[in-house]
Amino acid sequence: MTDAQPSADRRLAAQALAANDPTGWFEPLYAEAAAGTSVVPWDRDVPNPLLVDWLRTATLPQGARAVVIGCGYGIDAEFVASQGIRTTAFDISPTAIRGARARFPHSPVTYKVADLLHPPPTWRHAFDLVIESITVQSLPLDVRTHAITGIRDLLAPDATLLVISDISQTPATTGPPWPLTRADIDSFTAPDLTLVRVETISRADASGLHRWRAEFHRPPQPAAG
Q1: For residues 26 and 32, what is the distance between their CA atoms, to the nearest angstrom?
Q2: Cβ–Cβ contacts within 10 Å for residue 35, how many?
Q3: pLDDT beyond 80 at 19
Q4: Tens digits of per-residue pLDDT, 163-184?
Q5: pLDDT given for residue 174 in this prediction
């Protein structure tokens, strides 16, 4: 690839954005990857170490229900499920979900095709743990608020949200990705969703870049009466 030839994700994203379809590039990217003509840049063979490190020390309720947003081929979702957590994972790309099911044919994970911008109504306030890892940063700025609202709506009372993202000091103007600023991280908060902690952690590669790892909590519902 030369400087004059954009990566597949940027090429397909540009086409989708030109058609006013901010999520329309994911399925073509996974389809090209399935055909062997492109690669999915965020695909990896091991779960995200920032998720692994956090989840191994997290305290979750018995029988906790988790959802992994933008799960791709499922490697993070499989790790979550391996911790004894009832796990749902979704992606907007049918090809990605087929790939996850093929890669893990005996998986306990419930894999679904779904759109974060229009999630199933039955998922509203349904999960005790919501994992958002580099999905929001793959969406352009004009739908970021919509995406974050969709994420908040997945949280049950007394639930936890984990957000992992690349860092930007100023709002990104080109992408994907469009990394999150500290203001973006703070925008996940709401009257009923508080920031517990936010960390800046070096990526486990030679890029020299850093990522946010932020934890949020929705309080339990007040006792009746």
Answers
A1: 10
A2: 9
A3: yes
A4: 999 999 888 888 899 999 999 9
A5: 84
CA 69, CA 71: separation in Å to the nearest integer?
A: 5
pLDDT in tens, 43-81: 999 999 999 999 999 989 889 999 999 999 999 999 999
Distance CA(154)–CA(7), nearest Å, equals 32
Beta strands across the sheet bearing 110-113: 110-113, 86-91, 65-68, 127-133, 155-166, 210-217, 194-202
- Which amino acid appears at position 28 of this protein? P
Distances 83 to 59, 93, 96 between C-alpha atoms, Å = 11, 26, 23
For strand 210-217 and strand 155-166, is the pairing parallel, antiparallel, or unpaired? antiparallel
- Which tokens belong to 73? 């081929």
Number of Cβ within 10 Å of residue 203's Cβ equals: 14
Domain boundaries, the chain: 43-217
Residue 51's nearest CA partner among 87, 105, 23, 27 is: 87
What fold characterizes domain 43-217? Rossmann fold (3.40.50)
